[in-house]
Amino acid sequence: MPPANKVHAQWSSRMGFVLAATGSAVGLGNIWKFPYMVGDSGGAAFVLVYLGCIFLIGLPILISEWLLGRRGQKNPINTMQELAAKNNRSQAWILVGFSGVLAAFLILSFYSVIGGWSLAYIKDAVVGSFTGQDGDGIGALFNGMLESPGKMIFWHTLFIAATIGIVSMGVTQGLERAAKTLMPALGILLVFLVLYGMTTGGFKQALEFMFKPDWSQLTGGVVLAALGHAFFTLSLGMGIMMAYGSYLGEDISLLQSARTVVIMDTVIALAAGLAIFPIVFANDLALGQGPGLIFVSLPVAFGNITAGWVVGVAFFCLLTFAAITSAISLLEPVVEFIEERTPFSRQVSTVVAGLAIWALGIAALLSFNVWSDFTILGLNIFNFLDTLTSKFLLPLTGLGVILFVAWCLDKESVRKELGLDVYDFSIWNLIARYVAPIGVLVVFFTSL
Ligand code: TRP
User: Fold this and answer.
1) 1 in a domain, yes or no?
2) pLDDT the model gives residue 3
3) Residue 215 class from Cβ within 10 Å (0-12 exposed, 13-18 middle, 19+ buried)?
4) Are 126 and 308 in contact (CB under 8 A)?
5) Domain membership flag for residue 4
6) Rounded CA gap, 446 and 35, in Å?
7) What are phi and psi of 252, to 5 degrees?
8) Residues 6 or more apart whose Cβ sits within 8 Å of residue 115
9) 243 pLDDT exceeds 90?
């Protein structure tokens, strides 16, 4: 993201903007979280509902966040404040901005724990820990890490430190330039792993698991999980996309950009599933084992192909990179919030935000070992943070965004801004006013 103090700075090109937005969207959500949620929720029914949520709810909300950001030209809280005032609406709309900052803070704390796992696995791949291991061996390696709070704290700290370093030095733009080559590299590596999956004997089962729905698996909880994940994976409901939109020039098409980002995000998530599930089936690994899924399945491939350790190192480096580009987008709004409301400089604000997130992250990682019995509303700390954000804060904030755009802004100006003719705009209106908000509300209330 361009430096926060240059409020009227603009992306140099549509490409730069789309890359930054994709960098935020594509991350652990696609490669770590999506596959394990598919595994936990019983497969294809979840995948199809998720795709529906992405296109009918996520896509219009993404467009709405950008549109608000471009109009407000400020950070999310001030943007909501100003646009609400201009359109004679209640100042309560600022809550949308606040809830976004809170969500960012909470998400980054557990996100960074998983980023730490990814870093730890770079080391494991380098020293050859995966070589020749079967599913059990890799499982033991992973559990060894879970049982050691010290190790996890070390890697979590390193991940947060890297994120803080990048944000406080303000070199995020350099990172986006790197994304131009590294993101496609991640995509190519995933394709390679999908091809490997085809040789394992588990590919057909994986395809069926992911795309042949057994609707009996569909519960209210599964639908809410799919909806929440649509928000999480597109970085919605947190104002981050609004912030990106504030740097957007008038000439850039919101619809085209949104289509590109959504398609890339979706393709990467599906590819990750197609890389992981063949290995899971071929090695009889547990489908519904939760957050560890990618960390016990892919290394089996790295341990058993020629020069697999190199592939493993490359994979976890690229995964870490994708995680860092997303983590930066999570830290940024928190830093900006502190910077605006305290006398602290940007550097100090970054460190303060980072330390608070780091501390909460430690509580999250202890729920995998010494605090595993401590629960809030029946969830351990890690799951509680994930549930509170993905299933509550993000959808509700996103709902606020789309309701505001669809009901509070002048319709004609929105139509022009989206570049739609009257007919297409009536479709937009139908989705933005009714389909998406009612979808969120129905899912929300039926699952409670
Ligand atoms: N979308 C990212 C991922 O899939 C995570 C993320 C980054 C995020 N910024 C966000 C999620 C803002 C919600 C809101 O890994």
Assistant:
1) no
2) 44
3) exposed
4) no
5) no
6) 24
7) -90, 130
8) 28, 156, 159, 163, 320, 323, 324, 327
9) no
Q: Is the pLDDT of residue 169 over 60?
A: yes
Kind of pairing, strands 375-376 and 379-380?
antiparallel
For the stretch 349-365, pLDDT in tens is 999 999 999 999 999 99
Calculate the alpha carbon distances from 236 to 21, 64, 107 in Å: 11, 10, 12
Q: What are phi and psi of 360, to 5 degrees?
A: -65, -35
| CA–CA separation, 101 and 104 (whole Å) | 5
Q: What percentage of the chain carries pLDDT values higher than 90?
A: 76
Pocket of ligand 1 (CB under 6 A): 24-25, 27-30, 107, 232-233, 235, 238, 240, 326, 329-330, 394
With residue 376 as reference, give the H or E element that holds it. strand 375-376
Query: How many domains, in total, are found in the chain?
Result: 1
Confidence check: pLDDT of 2 > 50: no
CA-closest residue to ligand 1 atom 14: 235
**Nearest protein CA to atom 6 of ligand 1, as residue:** 235
Question: If 0-12 CB within 10 Å is exposed, 13-18 middle and 19+ buried, where does residue 89 land?
Answer: middle
Q: Where are the beta strands (DSSP E) in 180-248?
A: none
Cα diameter, the chain: 66
Six-digit token pair at 170? Answer: 């303000």
Instruction: Count CB-CB contacts under 10 A for residue 14.
Output: 16
Residue 410 φ/ψ, nearest 5 degrees: -65, 125
C-alpha–C-alpha distance, residues 430 and 402, integer Å: 12
- Residue at 422 is within a domain: yes
Q: What is the mean pLDDT of residues 199-208?
A: 95
Asked whether 108 and 334 are in contact (CB, 8 A), the reply is yes
What is the residue whose two structure tokens read 């803070």? 105
Instruction: Calculate the alpha carbon distances from 131 to 38, 126, 301, 302 in Å.
Output: 28, 10, 9, 7
pLDDT category, 425, cuts 50, 70, 90? very high
Q: What is the pTM of this model?
A: 0.93
How many A from CA of 131 to the centre of ligand 1?
A: 32
Range of the domain at 169: 14-447
* CATH number of the domain where residue 117 is located: 1.10.4160
Q: How far is the CA of 23 from the centre of ligand 1 (A)?
A: 9
Backbone angles phi, psi at 9, to 5 degrees: -65, 160
For 218, phi then psi, to 5°, come to -85, 110
Closest-lying ligand 1 atom to the alpha carbon of residue 234: 1
Q: Half-sphere exposure of 206 toward its Cβ, with a 13 Å CA cutoff?
A: 27
Reference 270, options 38, 21, 59; nearest CA is 38
